Amino acid sequence: MGRVFAYCRVSTDNQTTANQVLEISTAGFAIEGQRVIEEVISGSIAAKERPQFSKLLERLESGDVLVVTKLDRLGRNAMDVRSTVDDLAAKGIRVHCLVLGGVDLTSAAGRMTMQVLAAVAEFERDLLIERTQSGLARAKAEGKRLGRPEATKTRASVQELKEQKFSQSQVAAKLDLGIATVKRHWNA
After folding, report:
1. Tell me: the pLDDT tens digits for 136-173?
2. 134 labelled catalytic
3. Strand, coil or helix: what is 103?
């Protein structure tokens, strides 16, 4: 049997991975301290782009087991989670998810579970898009202006300093704006 690793992730500094570590040990996984990988990073960042997860990937070998408490620890995007699990499976690494009853996501049952969850996630995403589009259409039909408000004060300030022969970079510094913002209002 290979080594067992735990990947525990939280999104913000004021959160802790302690509950995840406790859940994993309570589930019967005795994981050595150096094999508990903890990370503070948003789940919206692809797993392979996370610093600690990337280091973990370098350490994992065929026959090893990776334990997570929930799928969302691997990522919020169903496609990213599936890709990560598939890549690990291709290297001979099993992935166990406690919230799914400790199912090995690389097994036949685990892959089926992942497919069902991915389909549900895609369905929820499509519903969200539909509701958003419907809400935008309704707001537009009611005559509401969409998008960010016009920056009339900023435009006026930029134009005023332009007339005083300030350069774009001087205007940016004087108004504490980014140069792109100044350029956008320069010829307005």
Report:
1. 999 999 999 888 877 888 889 999 999 999 999 999 99
2. no
3. strand
Mark out the alpha helices in the chain (DSSP H runs): 18-26, 51-59, 78-90, 108-141, 152-163, 168-175, 179-186
Question: What pLDDT score does 1 carry?
Answer: 62
Mean local confidence (pLDDT), 38-63: 92
Strand-by-strand arrangement of the 94-97 sheet:
36-40, 4-10, 65-68, 94-97, 103-104
Distance CA(135)–CA(170), nearest Å, equals 42
Span 42-54, average pLDDT: 90
Distances (CA, A) of 164 to 5, 58, 84: 64, 58, 57
The architecture in CATH of the region 4-107 reads: 3-Layer(aba) Sandwich (3.40)
- In the numeric block, the tokens 């685990």 are attached to 110
Q: Which helix (H) or strand (E) holds 96?
A: strand 94-97
Bridge partners for 104 per DSSP:
96
